[in-house]
Amino acid sequence: MTTTVKDAQLVERRLQVRWTDSRQPTNLPLFWLRENCPCEQCLHPQTRQRLVDTLRIPRDIAARDIRVNADGRTLRVTWEQDAHVSDFSTDFLGALRSDPEHLPIEIETWEAQSFAERTPAVPYEAYLGDDAVLGQFLTQVARYGFCFVEGAPATPEATRAIAQRISYIRETIFGGYWDFTANMEHADTAYTSMAIGPHTDGTYSLDAPGYQMFHCLAAECTGGENVLIDGFRIAQAMQREVPDQYLTLTQVAIPGQYVDLKRGIHLMARRPLFRLEDGGRLAQVTYNNYDRAPFVLDQPHEQLFYDGLATFARLCADPRWHYRRRLLPGSVLLFDNWRVLHARDTYTGYRRLAGAYLNREDVQSRLRVLHRPRGTH
Hints:
This protein has helices at 30-35, 90-94, 124-129, 131-144, 156-164, 231-241, 243-251, 299-317, 360-370, and strands at 5-11, 14-19, 26-29, 63-68, 74-79, 85-89, 121-123, 146-150, 178-180, 196-199, 211-223, 226-230, 254-260, 265-271, 274-276, 282-285, 322-325, 331-336, 340-344, 347-358.
């Protein structure tokens, strides 16, 4: 049952909204409420863009009347200056956050044993045809950092269909949709049969790809097992056990680079290994020892940086953190490249891998729409 408003009262020019469940009251300034009025005069009904001119709202705006309707699902404010009426739905008020871009899904960090009984997965046909299943898939990606689509045809068309069910495919120096063997088409170890250690992609991109998709189209080989590691889980361990190293890895911006001079390419970007948002929440893990560019650190940070890098690499190498699986035709993997590190064992024989990058904002946009409560704007 949807939570409803119990009552609302004015406290020092802020409206305190109390709820019928156990959540804390929501306190909203009158100015904010007038600026975010959802009526068609103030918010365009098609574009959902604000029409009210914020700078024309009096800073001392007052309410003539405040009332909650009988079922507690609408809060009505009548304004003193112009008698304008603003109706706010319970769904809209209840979904308000100080960080509205974040998804309303709790992250669950994990290690190898977390998926001993069940791996996050959905069936291919249902994924393509049912928005509820697509929502389940993206919810698991948001919660665990990865999910599989099972039972897909081992074709490029199926790979594209799975990616484009979510959003358009991101173009990079590797193209959009990519389909390759160990042919060294690009100057990257992914295009070999060598073992590849734990890393995230795009450390040389100012906006690293948010999500990455793998689809094995052929596996006539031995070896080549894939490994996924929850970088957020490792960050938690370091923050708890070696806080000075963790702090240093949130502060030192590490340069990544991609060099292919034959194609006229030299990309560079800098980010801390653990990038934090306002409030200290972990937003992104960036690590690729292959692509780290040479740089000189000031002496106070040097020792702690290399100690922290060594601790992080040691934890990444520990099998207790590894979700291991040999990708075979029929299984498509999507994972969060800002959170989950991936690796691959060496292999012998023929292996054909397809995949794509998806932009973070596009994937999260799709999930946000699928989770959208009725009555929000």
